[in-house]
Amino acid sequence: MTEIPYKIYLEENEMPKEWYNVRADMKKKPAPILNPGTLQPVTIDELSHIFCTELAKQELDDTTPYFEIPEEIRNFYKMYRPSPLVRAYCLEKKLGTPAHIYYKFEGNNTSGSHKLNSAIAQAYYAKKQGLKGVTTETGAGQWGTALSMACSYFDLDCQVYMVKVSYEQKPFRREVMRTYGAKVTPSPSMETEIGKKINAEFPGTTGSLGCAISEAVEAATTQEGYRYVLGSVLSQVLLHQSVIGLETKAALDKYGIKADMIIGCAGGGSNLGGLISPFAGEVLRGEANYDIIAVEPASCPSLTRGKYAYDFCDTGKVCPLAKMYTLGSGFIPSANHAGGLRYHGMSSVVSELYDQGILRATSVEQTKVFEAAQMFARVEGILPAPESSHAIRVAIDEALKCKETGEAKNIVFGLTGTGYFDMVAYQKFNDGEMSDYIPTDADLEKSLSTLPKVD
Amino acid sequence: MTEIPYKIYLEENEMPKEWYNVRADMKKKPAPILNPGTLQPVTIDELSHIFCTELAKQELDDTTPYFEIPEEIRNFYKMYRPSPLVRAYCLEKKLGTPAHIYYKFEGNNTSGSHKLNSAIAQAYYAKKQGLKGVTTETGAGQWGTALSMACSYFDLDCQVYMVKVSYEQKPFRREVMRTYGAKVTPSPSMETEIGKKINAEFPGTTGSLGCAISEAVEAATTQEGYRYVLGSVLSQVLLHQSVIGLETKAALDKYGIKADMIIGCAGGGSNLGGLISPFAGEVLRGEANYDIIAVEPASCPSLTRGKYAYDFCDTGKVCPLAKMYTLGSGFIPSANHAGGLRYHGMSSVVSELYDQGILRATSVEQTKVFEAAQMFARVEGILPAPESSHAIRVAIDEALKCKETGEAKNIVFGLTGTGYFDMVAYQKFNDGEMSDYIPTDADLEKSLSTLPKVD
């Protein structure tokens, strides 16, 4: 048997040349997204007012299994991809587990996460359409950073509405975006009608993601030559992120490794969906079985405690309705340091796969997550993002189960990013000041009561 | 001809198994380091009171050309090495140069720089000697972070004296160190005699590197089972850092590329010395010629404007004297955002190579450096550390010269790290508030007047 290196890197010519669209292999498709005004399925034409036309097409295409990755995007990928599939030898040793643990590490780029995989695709199609620029929102800033990098590469204007509290408390992310030439505006701003309205209604508000989305959409639709882009939840984003899963599978295949479990953290579903897509496809086609696990924060448990129903994707209710596992668009997650997982809903593709039993879900509390993060950092040398650490927690727990049973399972998880800009959270943990919060049933009942009436 | 990939990764089995000691190939050796009390060459015995015995031996050995890299260290290296040698296709295109630009990227690890290469070696020898722990100082925090990671891996206690102003202004680096279990103390502290003395003499002082070194040395020599470790300047550090140059050379050789220029930033000389060692060795042995360039900040120009003389390595004057290019141990560099390059002297190995004409030196001003950093970040996708950006500046300038002359030179430079914890500096640049400062001749005359009398 070939010895497995610490890091499996594919050669450049082994990198995927096509993205994989898991919807094509689903017999029962995810429910269509609906126009919030008419409650009818959104058309490409309608969607093209908000998104680039090519991306609108990708969004609605649930039958084409493969999309060619344009050469310009593949060349950009070559600057930071293939990402390594790492054998966690040191973690295995620390745990004393017979399990073999692998992680696909997406953090070795300046955006610090997998977000760049879709940002560059969306920027490319915007450029190809001859647009001047794109608008978006960002909370913690990872998506905004990725998009800034992508737009800089294609010389596109990039306007980022950053939730005001993050803009003020996370100046470093803001500066990374500015270094890449993006215009970063604290939201709510006085530059959009919706921003002015919110500022008038709630003087001194520090903003929310929902509000920032509304501003970004308004900015895109009122400026000539602009479109709006989004970093998660959408099916087009999962399509682009399939590069993670395709590389992972190619690397495993190269060494003849058959994964038993695939574990990913789940916020809006972009990383999870991308990682699991090719594996879920095999399951859907009846070619293989995998234990696929979505890990979400106990404070924002859309899969494990939400409802599978049509809901608004944004708090401002300007975006299309999607059928998804949701806590209600009015759900306000408690202070949680995994900012990227604080979304009330879940990608409709991931939701439907979950509903069909292709994957299971579990939730974890944040102090346990940071304990796993610290252990991982110390033995594997990578300081993980709080989001990614949700997957680490469950991978460790599963490896410890293997220790009890003696099973040498192959556990694969997605390490989506690094925590270099999350040191405030680590400081809380280091100081023993981190707390957990789980919403009560009454909390969820209340937020779920705002679901729109569809049918 | 084989197409050169964007990133050249060696296989794990192609990684160096030995460090290279360039001193062995120098006919005229660097001058010996001297005991500050007796002014006689320091013995291994004397040095072993401060450093681990094995490291003391490495420090004084100027004849053994190769040192085996212990397997434990090689295994640790495998977690983040081999580091890629990147072909800067996008930068070349942006510049429109016929030159081929390559950079050895050392930033893909949580310490964010090449410092980890020596930290893990020093921690290993400390562990092997049965020590309880090590002490060190850190300014901006890169070295402290690297050492914290290394000590955590070998379960060694790690005590870091961090310059108080950095401790307070750079809380994120501090938290990374704490996450790895290090004890981080703002210096001057009330925990050492020298700290108490300095606090009494200068109430409210925010500290200096010199003071932190003195505290760390005191802490090492007054606690049973502790030694002091240092991240740059020393010949042992250059030995460990030769892994950078050896990998670079192996990657170039693999694709049949002959470097014309090797460019590195120079503070204490650890990265530069490590990168150039195998190339300088070829020059010394008469096997090849390279244009080797050390780049230093105009605000701290030890090679270009300093004097080649014996000097104290630390402001506190407790460490051995070294013959080196120096601005005088009392030289106080102006506010400069490349904290890692603010050292008054230069590694005695690099100094001697410079004196023998094996390398040349140039200095650059920081606004020009940040212009290069920004351009590089935008086209190559990596946000570079301010230190590394000194090398980028000169690589760009040399590539532009090639554009004029039409020469297709192979330019190789060291990209020592990322700038994720340097966003305050980028913010200054983004806001147009960055200034340059060059010391006057009178400034240097004054600081050089404090050189010790030796001979």
UniProtKB/TrEMBL annotation, chains A, B:
<protein>
    <recommendedName>
        <fullName>tryptophan synthase</fullName>
        <ecNumber>4.2.1.20</ecNumber>
    </recommendedName>
</protein>
<comment type="similarity">
    <text>Belongs to the TrpB family.</text>
</comment>
<keyword id="KW-0456">Lyase</keyword>
<keyword id="KW-0057">Aromatic amino acid biosynthesis</keyword>
<dbReference type="InterPro" id="IPR006316">
    <property type="entry name" value="Trp_synth_b-like"/>
</dbReference>
<dbReference type="GO" id="GO:0005737">
    <property type="term" value="C:cytoplasm"/>
</dbReference>
<comment type="subunit">
    <text>Tetramer of two alpha and two beta chains.</text>
</comment>
<keyword id="KW-0663">Pyridoxal phosphate</keyword>
<dbReference type="GO" id="GO:0004834">
    <property type="term" value="F:tryptophan synthase activity"/>
</dbReference>
<keyword id="KW-0028">Amino-acid biosynthesis</keyword>
<keyword id="KW-0822">Tryptophan biosynthesis</keyword>
<comment type="pathway">
    <text>Amino-acid biosynthesis; L-tryptophan biosynthesis; L-tryptophan from chorismate: step 5/5.</text>
</comment>
<feature type="domain" description="Tryptophan synthase beta chain-like PALP">
    <location>
        <begin position="80"/>
        <end position="417"/>
    </location>
</feature>
<comment type="function">
    <text>The beta subunit is responsible for the synthesis of L-tryptophan from indole and L-serine.</text>
</comment>
<dbReference type="InterPro" id="IPR001926">
    <property type="entry name" value="TrpB-like_PALP"/>
</dbReference>
<dbReference type="InterPro" id="IPR036052">
    <property type="entry name" value="TrpB-like_PALP_sf"/>
</dbReference>
<dbReference type="Pfam" id="PF00291">
    <property type="entry name" value="PALP"/>
</dbReference>
<dbReference type="GO" id="GO:0030170">
    <property type="term" value="F:pyridoxal phosphate binding"/>
</dbReference>
<dbReference type="GO" id="GO:0052684">
    <property type="term" value="F:L-serine hydro-lyase (adding indole, L-tryptophan-forming) activity"/>
</dbReference>
<dbReference type="InterPro" id="IPR023026">
    <property type="entry name" value="Trp_synth_beta/beta-like"/>
</dbReference>
